[in-house]
Amino acid sequence: MSEDDNKAVIRGLRGVAAATTKTGFVDPLGALYYSGYDIDDLVDRATYEEVVYLLLNNRLPTQTELNNLKSELFSAMKLPKPVVQRIQSASTTCHPMEILRTEVSHLGEFDPEPDDTSDAANKRRAIRIIAKVPTIISFLYRTRINQDAVVPVKEYTFAENFLYMFRGRPADQQEKDAMERYMILHADHGLNASTFAARVTAGTGSDLYSAVTSAVGTLKGSFHGGASERVMSMLYEINSLGEVEEYIQSMLDDKKKIMGFGHRVYKSEDPRSKHLKELAERLCHQKDTLDIYNKCKKIEDTVHNKKGIFPNVDFYAALVMHALGVPKEFFTSFFAASRVTGWVAHTLEQYADAVLIRPTSEYVGEYGRKYVPIEKRS
Ligand code: COA
Q1: By alpha-carbon position, which residue is closest to atom 29 of ligand 1?
Q2: How many CB atoms lie within 10 A of CB 278?
Q3: Could you tell me the distance, in angstroms and rounded to a whole number, from the CA of residue 296 to the centre of ligand 1?
Q4: Nearest alpha-carbon partner for 57 in 352, 271, 354, 355
Q5: Ligand 1 centroid, distance to 236 Cα (angstroms)
Q6: List of domains in the chain
């Protein structure tokens, strides 16, 4: 008997439509749209800031609206002092996503308009959160490598500033282009696990910081955003092209998942993957590290031949991050800094829908057990 007798369990909610959205459409046939625009088009022509505007407002901005958004983002990048201090005193060994999760939550304490839960206030709050996430990540990294924080430059794009604040040196044209595209490609992806977590939190009527905190914690897992870090570990473990075949075969024999491959929705190619592959190839060519790119291609072919599955967003994203000089343990936080736009856009949709998300479960435990006092238990 289940909580709701009429429902069979749909494990992992596979194929269940749990919300409506005008934000991202993930077409299982291998396409992705943001508010109706094909990402193939956006990635070549839009800026990340335009995509932020699009996802929050469901339409592309005019020039004035875009300028205003850029100013709002720029002026909101600074962190409250207690957040800075907490990052400085954070454990040096824990994962960056753990610190990001804590500090997103911490930001809630310093919201300048805490009692205003209107749509307009939530949109302003959303922009402030989007603006601050890259600063948290960059400042954490600078602190860990004993370097000063880097102040963003007004003339830079948002993506360019993120890379600048993180690495402490301006990006060249190729790097700027890669970072912009990386952020566009990661901005939204329908009701993926972290976005779902954000919507579940928002569905209870909780605040935007809580929703994003839930999402950060969910993205961290290795079956979701954490996969790209594991991809990099695999690339380090495989020493040469000659070892690829045996490595993949032994993973499959052991029934282990190859990180960066497979997808719950796409059963053909992930539409983001081809763009990331192209970016990875260009960056590796520029940095004379084509060996690692060739290793990736060989892994892609081998996994496809053996298992019929394709790389997902995390496979070549790992290589893009690596080529941009981002250390492996920060990969997932870069994903978070881009996906936060999708999280807040969906959270605003959830507030508008105002429904509690509360599925049922099938009880498979025992019935009718009698309480036994502790001294009588064996
Ligand atoms: N490595 C090896 N085999 C994989 C695989 C992977 N990465 N992804 C899927 N498969 C296999 C499954 O084991 C299954 O095989 P079977 O039919 O022989 O049992 C088959 O492909 C179909 O899997 P599917 O049911 O479509 O996967 P899922 O929806 O349960 O899982 C993921 C989707 C993303 C969790 C899964 O592909 C995975 O764990 N990938 C690695 C982690 C990753 O890259 N995550 C980022 C996702 S964007």
Answers
A1: 264
A2: 15
A3: 18
A4: 352
A5: 22
A6: 23-221+328-353 (1.10.580.10), 227-323 (1.10.230.10)
